[in-house]
Amino acid sequence: MTGGPAAASAASAVLAAAAASGVRRLWFNSGSELTSFQEASAQARHQGEPTPQIITCPHEHVALTAAMGETMVTGQPSMTAAHADLGLLHHGGAIHNAMWGDHPIMIMSGYPPTRAESRNSPVFWKQQRWDQGSIVRQYVKWDYKLSALDDAALVVARGFQVALAPRRGPVYLAMPEEVGRHPIPVGNPVPSAQRLGIPTLGPGDPGVVSEVARRLTTARRPVIVTDRVGVNPHAVTLLAELADTLGVEVRATRYRMNLPDDNPWHTTAPLDEFDVIVVLDHPVPWMPAVERPHEDAWIGWAGPDPIEGRVPLYELRADARTTADPAAFLAAVLAEVGAAGPGDADAVRRRRQRPPAAAPRPAGGNAAVSGAPTPALIAAALDQHLRPDDLLTWEVFDTAPVRRTKPGTLFEKGGSSLGWSVAAATGASMAAGGAHAVAVTGDGSYLFGSPDSCLWLQQQHDAPVVTVVVNNGGYRTGTTTLAAHYPDGLAVTEPTVLGGHLTPSPDFAAHARSQGCYGEQVVRAADLTAALDRARTAVARDRVPAVLDVWVPEHLTGSMDPARRARPAHDEGNTDG
């Protein structure tokens, strides 16, 4: 189809088709059945053939999450390789995040040899599963087990075609050990996902577009509710233009920078105050148990999957739904408004004169702030510290006070599995050519994310990241949620809430320093700004990862007492059981 001659093994064909489909990196975890990829990569590089760069990763969760960071920045597909069923399982909750983050990643894992002469280790029997793809089937768009009879390159091209088709998402490929080394004919053209054809979405049903345009121009108070417009920078521009033109309020999440934070049309008003609601690519625009639109409100819905087919039960109502690309849909609505005129010109004029009150912003710096750090003060310090082109990944607190005005600089995971932020920042920084990246995470989620592996990856590939650990000494689910469920229970009255508090708290700064990184513990709010500056210097000048262990008040108790987080003393003379 395209490209040069195929190489002489199935593994070579897999890598060639991946490269032809736009894959730049293979986030690689070692396995005895994956050596064919290492050899195929070396041969391709020696021959000057296109091939993904192998990025060695010490942990599968980190590998898949870093691949997500790469796709967030490039918009192109990526690829991971992991060892048999064990490596696939080690991806853990990252598989959930890959699905809900709409990441076009081919998740590969090997499969143990089945020929008698190759089964020279007991593990080859233990790792053999009836249906290895069933491990991930609920979370991927496509899965396939390659055989020696398959055209390996075509299988890979097909997998990426599915991954890149709207709505984008991960796919899975199992590669048996014998197949990877299996010789294939040389000289066949290399297929690609693009050659097979990637479908695109248009603006949606013309009738829905016209109805949305009419409703937005005649409504008393309309709102656009969005989560994922910011994936496409052009869509951000169009959304801002529509809001400014018609005086339409926008309720946007922080999944991406969906609307510049200095735009006056941001709103946090309850949905029941609006008479027209347009949902634009948002998987959960409201939770009926928490809030509901007004019964008389008209609701239009547009996006790559306007019925959220990934969810078994979906009860959110709409008067009109259409499958559409958000940018194309916004452009069509703007064109319809321009062609039809302003509709109710008085209503539009009144709305444009009264944009929502701007959310309060920190008053520049916090050098004079005393007392303990809090999430709000950390956000204020980050708002002062970050430059427009810096990348910010987050998974711990509300980042609304941290102003982001440039598309592609704010990233949240989209799913609900913790341990995402640091590895995602690493992959994003690498994909962005070494852009300065700050990852904000909690102490529990930092531990979930395999920090040893993250710091090693940053050092090995010269992609140092500033990690801000918001350390409250525990898990919200096991402390504040416990107290909400059992306010008069016994568990919350104990000095250390078992299952909730992380006692003693790990010394994350010392851990970073032990790995040759910059590590600093921050316990005073007045030190936040200077600590962030020192961390930036460490990654920019010294090229080492930086970890700021920022203590905030402990869940439930509000304690900042170091003794509460110190390792308990043991009486070495006590020999009782």
TrEMBL record:
Gene3D superfamilies: 3.40.50.970, TPP-binding domain. Residues 404-550 form the Thiamine pyrophosphate enzyme TPP-binding domain. Residues 10-121 form the Thiamine pyrophosphate enzyme N-terminal TPP-binding domain. This is Thiamine pyrophosphate-binding protein. GO terms for cellular component: acetolactate synthase complex. Belongs to the TPP enzyme family. One of its GO terms (molecular function) is flavin adenine dinucleotide binding. It comes from Micromonospora profundi. Keywords: Thiamine pyrophosphate. Residues 342-370 are annotated as: Disordered. One of its GO terms (biological process) is isoleucine biosynthetic process.
